[in-house]
Design brief:
CATH superfamily: Mitochondrial biogenesis AIM24
CATH class: Alpha Beta
Order of helices and strands: EEEEEHEEEEEEHEEEEEHEH
Helix content: 10-25%
Radius of gyration: 19 Å
Number of strands: 17
Number of domains: 1
Shape: globular
Largest sheet: 7 strands, antiparallel
Structural class: mainly beta
Strand content: over 45%
Length: about 250
């Protein structure tokens, strides 16, 4: 299925949203709860699956939904469609500060692999699937990076990253980074999770037990502030979170 052709505008700087412009009959799919606002004439429907396979039966949709459940995401996706003639807009944003990365899949070889919670929305026709790390042992204990999402198609897709985003072009070299800092990478990149060498580095280095290793030829997107790191910092500085703190007035 060919993806719908949608126009878009990225709004904001450090806490961005993406506004999608729909013509009559065009549809954008999104994670449940990602919508900020929509104009009159846009209708939405919650469906099981991304709608990329028109002839997919109930069992196929159920299987796809089950795979999404493994990532911790909702088994349903929301489809927003313009039902009137003219331009209508709908906007989406992630639930924490960061940047939105527009990805033209047709210009990126037809597919992209991203962290399981990075996907925000995409033109209908984009297939949203999951991809397991081939090294299951490291993946189970490596935190982020065990289960990844795979987006494929020929239209626009949008992923969200925390903090500042850096795009790197690899031409055969190797890049190592914190597993949570990886946002997405194109085909041609070999990805694995490796254990940090040395007991001292593991326990006292502060960088975690595992590192993501990427090598090959392609693009890699990196985020400066993974949500897990932000959440850990908030929790460590608020030990009485959820209760009373008599030291604060």
């Amino acid at each position: 299925m060919r993806s719908h052709e949608i126009d878009y505008q990225i709004i904001g700087n450090s806490m961005q949203m993406v506004e999608i412009e729909l013509d009559h009959g065009e549809t954008v799919i999104a994670e449940a709860g990602a919508m900020n606002y929509m104009e009159d004439g846009v209708v939405f429907e919650t469906k099981m699956g991304d709608g990329s396979e028109v002839d997919q039966g109930f069992m196929g949709k159920l299987f796809s939904a089950g795979k999404r459940a493994l990532t911790g995401e909702s088994v349903f996706m929301t489809h927003f469609t313009s039902e009137i003639v003219g331009k209508r807009r709908v906007a989406f944003a992630a639930p924490y500060p960061g940047a939105i990365i527009p990805l033209d899949l047709a210009q990126l070889g037809g597919s992209i692999t991203c962290q399981k919670d990075a996907f925000l929305c995409a033109a209908k026709g984009t297939k949203v699937d999951i991809a397991f790390n081939r090294r299951l042992g490291s993946g189970f204990f490596g935190g982020e990076g065990f289960i990844l999402q795979h987006l494929s198609g020929d239209g626009m897709a949008f992923v969200h990253a925390g903090g500042t985003v850096i795009e790197k072009q690899l031409t055969g070299e190797t890049l190592r980074l914190d597993t949570g800092c990886l946002v997405a990478f194109t085909d041609g990149i070999d990805y694995s999770i490796e254990m940090t060498s040395g007991l001292r580095s593991m326990f006292f280095g502060g960088e975690g037990f595992f590192m993501a290793t990427l090598s090959g030829h392609g693009k890699v997107w990196i985020q400066s502030l993974p949500f897990s790191r932000l959440a850990d910092r908030i929790i460590s500085h608020a030990p009485n979170l959820g209760g009373s703190n008599r030291g604060e007035q």
